[in-house]
Structures are given as structure tokens and as C-alpha cells.
Amino acid sequence: MQPHPFAPRRSVTSLFSNLVTRPTGRAIRTGVESQLAEMEAGPSLCLSILDFSQVRILDYSCADEIVAKLLLRFLGEERPAEAYFVVRGVQEHHVEAIEAVLERHDLMLVAEDDAGYVHLLGGANPVHRVTWDALARRGRATAGELVEETGLAEEAIAATFTGFALQRVVVRHPDGTVSPLSALLGDDGSE
User: Fold this and answer.
1) Which of 17, 55, 96, 177 has a 20 to 30 A CA-CA distance from 2?
2) Which tens digits make up the pLDDT trace of 101-116?
3) CATH classification at residue 167
4) Which residue has the higher pLDDT, 163 or 36?
5) Is the pLDDT assigned to residue 10 strictly greater than 90?
């Protein structure tokens, strides 16, 4: 029996403590891609968690190789798997490098910090931020359900949901609702 398409399989990758240089980043990205390729094929999505909690140093070139190139590979129509990505254990000193590469490539990424707070990193505008915060608080909603909470027009929220889906930071459900990837982590984030 195949898993429900919205019951994600998970892959968790813990990263080295010093992430510097492009070759290091390329090696890690290749390892994540190999791990995803080895997972059972099927219609269900895979939530891949990149754990930065043990990372002391992250430079821009390594962030570009790991984060940006990984996201770019799994965004397009020709993506090798239905993989979505969340970074966990993100600390203040990681954010600068990650944000820089995301903004350069016009990407977004869901990040959970050490305190468990979920952030939307990358090229998000104020409408994205307001919509994201409301959706993250609810865990699952339609555009209409967020109108009063955000003060935005339903059409603006619906358009933002579409952009979020294209960026793969949310999952659309058959009933018309949308969930942020953070809602798929579960209460304790464990597998």
C-alpha cells in the first residue's frame, strides 16, 4: 500500500561542523541527493530535513552548493523526486549566508531555529511575511480563512499561496487548504 500523498516520508541529514568551500558543499549536496534517490519511489512527498544544529561555520560558497543548488534542482518540472526541504537548528550565524544565497537565486526556504520557531527565509516581501506568519500559526488554512487575520484581500493571499507552492514551502491539500512545511514536522519534529 502506498503512503497517502500528504503523509511525508522523511530524510534527515546532519551536517558537519565546519561547512566551508564549494567542494565540501558539493559533497554534502551529492550525499543528500543520493539519499533521496535511494528512498522508495511513489507519489508521496519526501520532507528532507537538513540539520544545522552542529554547524559552527557556514560560508557563502558552501551555503550556495548545499542550499541553493539543492532547492533549484527540486523546484522545476523535471525534478528527480517530490522532495521538500526544511533546515533545522538554524542559528543566527547561519542566517546571513543562507539568506544571501536564497535572495540571489530568488528562493524561499523554511527554517526552524534552536528554539523551535519557524522562519521563512529568502526572497519574501511583506505580503509573503504576513501571510506566512498567519499560516504558520494556524498550521493549515484556505486563503479565505486568513483574510481577517492578515488584513489582506483573499486574492492576494491566494496568489501568495501559489507562489509559496511554486517555491515548495507549502503543501496544497486536495480539500483546498494549504499547510506550511513546518506543519509536517509534527509536534516534536521527530520521525
Assistant:
1) 177
2) 999 999 999 999 888 8
3) 1.10.10.10
4) 163
5) no
What is the phi/psi pair of residue 29, to 5°? -60, -45
Which of 112, 117, 35, 118 is closest to 70 using CA atoms?
A: 35
Least confident of 2-16, 18-32, 37-51, 118-132: 2-16
In a shared domain, residues 119 and 158: no
57 in the same domain as 150: no
**DSSP label at residue 17:** S
pTM of the prediction?
Answer: 0.83
Residue 96's closest CA among 126, 69, 62? 62
Q: How many CB atoms lie within 10 A of CB 72?
A: 12
Domain interval for residue 180 = 124-186
Rg (CA), the chain: 16
122, three cell numbers: 529568502
* Cα–Cα distance, 1 to 142 (Å, whole number): 30
